[in-house]
Specification:
Strand content of chain B: under 5%
Radius of gyration of chain A: 19 Å
Oligomer: heterodimer
Number of helices of chain A: 8
Distance between the termini of chain A: 40 Å
Largest interface: A-B, 37 and 32 residues
Number of strands of chain B: 0
Shape of chain A: globular
Order of helices and strands of chain A: HEEEEHEHEHHEEEHEHEEHEE
Number of helices of chain B: 9
Distance between the termini of chain B: 9 Å
Structural class of chain A: alpha/beta
Largest sheet of chain A: 6 strands, mixed
Helix content of chain B: 55-70%
Chain lengths: ~325, ~210
């Protein structure tokens, strides 16, 4: 394992120190428990949109803290959900009378810890709601599994609900909007290599040079299927097929297409894949109206990518276009 | 022999040493089917329990268990933090204000811990989780209820070992391993393994 670190135990804390130094105009980092909050928090009269989860997915979530997006982010240890007291600290640091919406990705640990945090905050009289995002089409949603994972759609959900909160929507409205976005966003991911968690010191799964994992999550867990390396055309076609047929997306639908690097795939390959996805969607009569391309929800240094489609309407498009000023997303300001 | 606050604290310190010793093994088990953090998280939690015990002297077994519960919930994260935290919290409530825990009360506390884990994690036997070690452990403890603390814990640890072994052949239905479906077969559940390790450490400490 080669990494630019001092000690696996201090990776997250040292990284947060750098984040704070690099973006002191938009956010600040508080210690013990570690949370990332908007520089102008607590928010007066606006809903605080808060998210969090294991570290190692940067820029998710700390990179999305700022005007027009998250009020606070709660980073856990690498690939480990944060503890309830850390989530509660983020709620207290940002939430006023308008209340807070917690965005939770569907992983057992995240759900358990955020659930407990919500109960703690409610016991203190704060109006806190939570939504669970589960956009990964690779996982069968069944009562016999933990259900679909929350993956790329999380970034779009955080942007859109953050914009609604910024314009002054009520907690009821922001929560309803979040449920709408969750209902119409779908994702799929692939891995070409496994990531190495600093404290584990070796790759999270073994993958031969001529193999890929199809249907991965964001935690270095193996995918649902291991297949041979194929061309980009074949790979992206399979990914588009998996996403489009799930909702399903239909001819004439307007969508946002999000092509995401899992951390180790360079932009030259990512744009290549994005171009293929645009062409395949056009062939199906699906209209790509907005795009996001880059590493936004990653899995350490894992090579791989994910595709996310969000069905748009006028309201969602307007909220996507609304000004945002965070370390990782910035426009209109 | 009955268990006092002092002996429970000593058992937790022994458990912390066992977890530290098996940290890499738990990471490897988790690496196979999950995200390779279970050993690290458990080690972080139990190291924090030892620090907490160094700076506080809880006076009843229930207070020791509660200290362990709050430490695990606030230091571990993931699924293990809330699940093990709930187990110790429910056991603590059952122990009440007793100064000493005898075999009968211990069995009740173990039963309460199991019920707490199941309520929080919504797992049943056969899902390939820590519950597959805990259910047989509690049943074995109940069968041994007439004997002493050390005998009950040894019976529970023996059953937990077998329960953990049984997860190797199961298809996981909870937690991150469930995403793998059939591909996760052939691997022991890391949570079941850590449960078995903890019960063994308690049993050894009680001797």
């Amino acid at each position: 394992m080669k990494k630019i670190i001092n000690d696996p135990k201090t990776v997250v804390a040292e990284s947060l120190r750098g984040l704070a130094a690099a973006h002191a105009d938009v956010l600040r980092v508080e210690d013990d428990p570690a949370i990332v909050v908007r520089v102008d928090a607590p928010l007066d009269g606006k809903v605080a949109v808060i998210s969090g989860g294991g570290s190692g997915h940067e820029p998710l979530h700390g990179g999305f803290v700022g005007q027009g997006m998250l009020a606070a982010a709660v980073p856990g240890a690498v690939f480990t959900s944060p503890t309830p007291d850390a989530v509660e600290a983020a709620v207290k640091a940002t939430t006023g009378d308008a209340g807070a919406l917690l965005i939770v990705k569907n992983y057992t640990g995240d759900v358990l810890n955020f659930e407990t945090a919500g109960e703690l905050a409610a016991a203190e009289g704060l109006d806190v709601r939570s939504v669970v995002i589960d956009d990964d089409v690779a996982v069968k949603d069944s009562t016999y599994t933990a259900g679909r994972r929350g993956v790329g759609g999380t970034v779009l959900l955080e942007k859109i609900t953050g914009a609604a909160a910024e314009r002054g929507d009520t907690l009821d409205a922001v929560e309803a909007l979040a449920r709408k976005v969750i209902g119409q966003v779908r994702s799929i991911g692939v891995a070409l290599t496994a990531p190495t968690v600093p404290h584990a010191g070796e790759p999270s799964f073994d993958l031969a040079d001529d193999e890929i994992e199809f249907g991965i999550g964001i935690h270095g867990e193996p995918g649902i299927e291991r297949t041979a390396v194929v061309t980009a055309d074949e790979l992206v076609a399979r990914m588009v097929e998996a996403v489009v047929t799930d909702l399903p997306f239909a001819e004439g639908d307007k969508v946002l297409l999000f092509t995401n690097s899992m951390g180790g795939t360079p932009l030259v390959e990512l744009y290549l894949a994005h171009g293929i996805a645009e062409r395949l969607l056009a062939e199906r009569g699906i209209v790509v109206e907005r795009r996001l391309v880059g590493p936004y929800i990653t899995s350490l240094e894992m090579q791989g990518m994910s595709l996310t489609l969000l069905k748009l309407d006028d309201e969602l498009t307007e909220l996507w276009d609304a000004p945002v000023n965070t370390p990782a997303l910035r426009w209109g300001v | 022999m009955a268990c006092t606050a002092e002996t429970l604290a000593a058992a937790l310190r022994a458990a912390a040493a066992v977890i530290a010793e098996h940290r890499a093994e738990l990471v490897d088990l988790d690496r196979a089917i999950g995200d390779a953090d279970h050993g690290e998280n458990m080690d972080r939690g139990f190291t924090a329990i030892v620090s907490a015990l160094d700076s506080a002297t809880p006076e009843t077994p229930a207070a020791v268990a509660k200290l362990a519960a709050t430490t695990l919930i606030s230091k571990v994260g993931g699924a293990a933090g809330p699940l093990y935290g709930t187990a110790f919290l429910r056991a603590s409530v059952k122990l009440g204000d007793a100064a000493e825990v005898d075999g009968a009360l211990l069995v009740e506390a173990l039963r309460a811990a199991l019920e707490g884990v199941q309520a929080r994690g919504k797992a049943v036997g056969g899902d390939a989780t820590m519950v597959d070690a805990l259910i047989p452990a509690v049943s074995a403890a109940e069968e041994a209820a007439g004997s002493g603390v050390a005998e009950i814990l040894t019976a529970a640890a023996d059953a937990a070992d077998k329960g953990a072994e049984s997860t190797v052949d199961l298809v996981p239905r909870k937690g991150r391993a469930s995403y793998l479906g059939e591909r996760a077969k052939g691997h022991m559940d890391p949570g079941a393994r850590s449960t078995a390790l903890l019960l063994r450490a308690f049993a050894e400490a009680a001797k």
